[in-house]
Amino acid sequence: MCVFCKIVAKEIPADVVFESIDVLAFNDINPEAPTHVLVIPKWHYENAADLAASAPTTLAELFTVADQIAKERELDGYRLTFNTGESAGQSVFHAHLHILGGRPFAWPPG
Ligand code: 5GP
Ligand code: ZN
């Protein structure tokens, strides 16, 4: 079982900020910004493209949950990222949407 499936199964703890039938959101263990939340499907998909192909409604929910969390925190802007593949920085191969906020961000990202 992958690390995020273990979090869904409550086999390892996480600081959960939102939960629905299909989606879980929790604070990143190694935050890169004052807000750094990961929004994930509870079912295992390797990346965003697999999630889009198999469960597009859940993919859409990740974005609406992200916006809801940003509004609750009154973020004046936020960055959403799906890293896909090792060279793009993906280290956990269970689809997850990063919400980053609470500080300015450079463009393009490093
Ligand atoms: P990726 O590099 O795959 O885009 O993002 C994986 C993210 O998961 C990283 O930002 C990393 O800090 C976070 N992460 C890895 N393991 C855990 C964990 O056990 N708990 C939590 N809360 N975050 C984790
Ligand atoms: Zn998984």
Task: Describe what this molecule looks like in 3D.
- The protein is 27% helix and 23% strand.
- With 110 residues, the chain is α+β, with helices and mostly antiparallel strands.
- It has a five-stranded antiparallel sheet with strand order 1-2-3-5-4, with helices on one face.
- The termini are far apart.
- The relative contact order is 0.22.
- The model has no long low-confidence stretch (mean pLDDT 98).
- Zinc ion is lined by residues 2, 4-5, 44, 94.
Short description:
This protein is of the alpha+beta class and 110 residues long.
Shape: globular
> Hetero groups bound?
guanosine-5'-monophosphate, zinc ion
Helix content: 25-40%
Number of helices: 3
Mean pLDDT: 98
**Strand runs, count:** 5
Residue share in β-strands: 15-25%
The residue ranges in which pLDDT falls below 50 over 5 or more consecutive positions are none
Any idea what the radius of gyration is?
13 Å
Order of helices and strands: HEEEHHEE
Distance between the termini: 31 Å
Strand order of the largest sheet: 1-2-3-5-4
Largest sheet report: 5 strands, antiparallel
Query: Which class best fits the helix and strand makeup?
Result: alpha+beta
